[in-house]
Amino acid sequence: AARRATMAKKLPLHKRLPLLLWPPNLIGYVRVVTQLLAMFDPNPASSYAVWMVTLSLALDYFDGPCARRMNMCSQFGDLLDHYTDHATMLWLVYVTASSGSWGRANLAISTFHNGVAFVYMSIYGHYFKHTKKGNFWTRTIEANNYWNFASILYCANCILLPLIKLSFAGTYEKQPNAVTTPLIDLTDMLGAVVTFSYSVAVWL
């Protein structure tokens, strides 16, 4: 028994812990919980909801590096991460889309994009950027760890602009779907074009 205990201590952490208790996956669970807390708040623009969704998004920058550093990358962790990402994106656009024709179009594009992501992951068992195939458009959006113009527009449409709208609406007691400016709409429209194109390109 003592020998087995000694051998167990020598095993790396990812072999001693069950997959569901790997630290990167624990971060993923916190992301899910904080996002659900935001989603179930009656007022999506409340300070509480905005901070919860912001925390969920911020933790997205830790689970991947943590998994790689601890040698705990897994299909489960990857899917947990990206299903959470896309559920968050869809909710953000849903609660901030304006009631006009552009808002409806933006929500339709977001629903299409996130639906594509859910279907793609359920079929292939991994996220878009982990495919060995790819093409010019998908590689453009995914290049340089997302720091390029196409990716900025994509992130603006799916995450950044909705967060700004929620924060502004909460601060000035307005409805999230009524908060916009011509510049925000223009940036959002360009981002929606990228989002739609990305949704189609992953199948090519």
From TrEMBL:
Record GO biological process: phospholipid biosynthetic process
GO cellular component, one term: membrane
Keyword terms of this UniProt record: Membrane, Transferase, Transmembrane, Transmembrane helix
Ranges that cross the membrane: 20-39, 107-126, 146-164
Gene3D superfamilies per UniProt: 1.20.120.1760
One Pfam family here: CDP-OH_P_transf
GO molecular function, one term: phosphotransferase activity, for other substituted phosphate groups
Family statement: Belongs to the CDP-alcohol phosphatidyltransferase class-I family.
UniProt protein name: CDP-diacylglycerol--inositol 3-phosphatidyltransferase
